[in-house]
Known about the structure:
By secondary structure, the protein is mainly beta. The protein has 7 helices and 34 strands.
Amino acid sequence: MKLYFASCFGLLAAAAAKRVVVDWDISYITIDRDGHSLRRAISVNGKLPIPPIVATIGDTVELNVHNGLDKATTIHAHGLFQTNNTHMDGPAMITQCGIPPGDNFTYVYKLENRGSYWIHGHKAHEISDGLRAAFIINDKPDEQPYHYDEDYLLTFEEWFKEEFADRMYQTLNPKQSFPPPHGYASGLINGVNGNITQTLKFQPGKTYRIRLVNIGDLNSFQFSLPGHEMQVIEADGEYSVPYVTDGIDIAPAQRYSVLVKAHDTDAFNYQFNATMHANFIPASPGLTPRVYTGNIEYNTNSPYQDTRAFYEKPDFKWLNDIEMEALDGQPAMIPTRNLYRDVGNKLYNTGQHLDHMNNITFALPKVPSLFTALSMGSLAMDPRVYGPQTNAVVLNYGEVVELTINSPAQLPHPIHRHGLTFQIVEYGPANSPFPVPEQFQNIPVRKALGAPMRRDTMSIPEYSYIKVRFRAASAINFLHCHYSVHAAIGMDMVFIEGPDVLQKTLLVPEEMYEMCRKQGIPTTGNAAGNRGFDFTGLPNAPALADQPNSGPPQNH
Length: 556
């Protein structure tokens, strides 16, 4: 089995060593990625796109980061399990302080899970300016549940002509109209303009695994491969029972693997389709949606098959993850606790339209939440110590949670939970205080049958709710919308899982505290760096425009 990632990176073989060392020198670069706009971006070792990290389950990856930016940075390995390793998860001011400019830090990942992942910046939304790459964890050769001959990787992302900070200024400026004028991005496949996607070479009779990884932060990609059967075998690193589909709509941060059996003859070549879209942005010819195609080549001398009828067939099937089943057959967990969150956007007394969960718009604490959990003794079990705007929920180690997220608006939301996966158990119509457009009325309730599919990034459809279940670990696990703009304006929360267990079992390296001290960031105390419930030094939490200023939440 070989992994191919476009011709610019050549052949990448699965790492055989138990210790895999990767060096990242993060710096700015001026680049034209889409053929339309020259702009500043963030690179690794002077390169963009950033080459994927490839290792094998059981390996230890040491990622040596040098921060050559003019601001702090952190790195998050998206989807990797972090058992007894939550301090390496990466979200700034949740599990660590940022790496100061000019400093170095080594992330150590003990690879517990296999599959298709990615890795990206997790401070100041540097992900949107290029700090993102695929992270592939191969099976051990004798543990592969499915046979395939070759392994292709396709990453999808959008690229804006503006830096993220410029887009955020338009969004948060109360003097600007909201929402701001839509920006139109270009689509990149394997890091280059989607119109010049590299050819995938097929040989008759072979079986190919194609990994589909959306490393973008706003647009979804609809993938199809006319003339071939696609069997989905993986979602977000979790293997599934083979699921046959015609098309897959891949939301930001989601990943899939499909098996494709090549035809027995090389009489025809084919094309795959990757349509970049954001349904909440009005269609504009040539701007959105954008259709990209790539070649599936059997023989350079063969003609291309006409596949127009494929898209016109009345029974065209899109993947629906509620219909998928986990390969290991794990049944639905029985919840011992139920949580409910409304998500959306509202006008606050700052004059800004901000996103929220249960009307709380997220803001980072002054002390990383992990350090609060480790330093507050028995008070670490009280969600109030994590601050009025972290939307913190404290969970007992091992309890099973059913989380319902209700999204009563014409916006889908890709929601990611750090640290571990969850089971998808139900979708249904949202409880909406707003008039529901006709096309979103009569949304059915859909429940998982058999072994619910597990994943780490859910995609909540428009005017819908979702129910997921997970078992609490001993960790600090961030949960947020993976539209970077939505995360930046408040659609986030923090699960404080088993903090009493963390206090007994986790030893944070001294260098992580030193990074904080260099930046004047306290490493003990509540969200404000104080004792008990003294939040002096924290800004007042914004209130809804028609309500008085809110104080710390009393209960969750």
